Amino acid sequence: MQARTREQIQRLIEDALVLQETGVFSLVLEGIPWPVARVVTELLEIPTIGIGAGPHCDGQVQVIADLLHLLPGPLPRHSRPFLEAGELIRDVLARYAEAVRSGEFPTMAESFQLPKEVDLAWLEDLARRLAGQGQDPGHEG
Q: How distant, in Å, are the alpha carbons of 67, 71, 98, 104 from that of 90?
C-alpha cells in the first residue's frame, strides 16, 4: 500500500504531474487509496490505469491468474475471480490422466495413420528384420 501519509500523498501527486510533463503516455496507480487515485486521475490529462487503486482510474489491470482463480487460496483484496478455472482445470487434468491410464485415450481417431504409399505389412516386416539384427527399428540400415 502506497500513499498512506499526507507527505506520501502529496509526493505521489507531485510526481504524477512531473511525469506527465516529461511526456509519459499513461500512469499506473498501484495499491493506493481510491480517493488519491481519483484526485490523480482528475488532475492528469493522460490516462491512469489502476491495480488496487479503486474504480476512478481510466482503466484497470489485473493478473490473469487472479481473474481466472487458477491457484487455490485467497486472492489479493483488489482482485475478483470471474471464473473458478483452477477447479475446472484440475478436474480436466484428472479426467485426462484417468483416460490415459485406462487406455481410453488416445484412440485411433486421435492417432496419425501411415501414408498410403507405406503399408502396415512392410512396416511389420521391417521391424522383424531389424529386431533380428539387433538394430533399433527407428533407423533403417
A: 16, 10, 12, 19
From the candidates 30, 104, 110, 140, give the one annotated as an active-site residue: 30
CB 29 within 8 A of CB 57: yes
- Residue at 100: amino acid letter: V
The 10s digit of each residue's pLDDT in 77-115 is: 899 999 999 999 999 999 999 999 999 999 999 999 999
pTM, full prediction: 0.66
Report whether 49 contacts 28 (CB < 8 A). Answer: yes
104 is catalytic: no
> What per-residue confidence (pLDDT) applies to 118?
94
Q: Which residue has the cell 503516455?
A: 25
